[in-house]
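Hi there, hope your week has been kind to you so far. Please have a think about how the structure follows from the sequence. I've dropped the whole record in just underneath, so have a look:

_____
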Amino acid sequence: MDTLTSRYFWGRGYTNDGMGKAARFIGAQFLAFGLKPVNGKSYLQEFGYDVNTFPGRMEVTVNGAVLEPGRDFIVSPESRGIKATGTLVRKDSLNFSDPANRILVTLEDKLTWSVAQEAADYTVIKIDKKSIQGPPVTVSVNIGNEVVRNFRAANIAAVVRGTAVPDSFIVFTGHYDHLGGMGAKTWFPGANDNASGISMLLSLAKFYAAHPQRYSVLFICFAGEEAGILGSKHFTEKPLVPLNNIRFLVNMDITGTGEEGITVVNATVYPEEFNLIRQLNGQGRYLPKVVSRGKAANSDHYFFTEKGVPAFFIYTMGGIKAYHDVFDISKTLPLNKYNDLFRLLTQFASLLQK
């Protein structure tokens, strides 16, 4: 957690080689554990997509006050870069515009960032209400953007071969990318989303490397989730193993808390497996509750489900509320149900192979 959320990895995104550094780190972990690549001699499954990035200038002044990127304001991810000074026209209590420079300023209770694949012909500045005095009247911005065409990303896949039925697979997945950096000084650590899921995946990989199962156990770390679950989409379109050989897939995204239990997406689609995981939880008293949720296109399990692969997406509940912001950091993430979730997942995987 501390490693993946450090400044060196720069939010595991699109500037400062953040995603590339994270991919190489995870590949090195798989190698150290003794896992084998699925894709020939490489752990990497490369692909590309366009993305709007903000590698440099990130300056905003409102009513003469200099605002801090990430904490006082964020720039909407589809925004164009611009250097301009203007007067704001009030549209309503929360929205103000500078029509001449095509700048929109919005006041927000909470700042959450995202990723866009293209740049629009306008710039949106979202400001934390608490960071300014009175309504915004004047604005000065100096923002640099760059649309990167065919940004090179990679899924990372490794396997522990099964001892009895090696052509059948239990699969654990999670996305290792996050939002990256916004300007030259601000990055989004992405502790809960999703360094937590990758940490759990690596713990499972280390365990299964030392304890091979009847079925092969496949681990896939996806890129491009924040840009539209693109890595998992690519994998299902160009699978490294036959999709109909997957007995079950468990996707882990946001697993850093748990004092209120876990939610299982696709529980209503696969009721038999959901009843199994709920029964195991009751026997082991691991988590306060296991909540059922239906089908949702909200993480990397989705395209597998669409291809007929049985899959759950599991996320923890409770604890800190930091999400897609600069406050999602390792030191405040409790991981208080990490070991219990690990035990539940390994027991679930074991029973699926009988």
About this structure: The longest strand covers residues 146-160. Residues 173 and 332 are 24 Å apart (CA to CA).
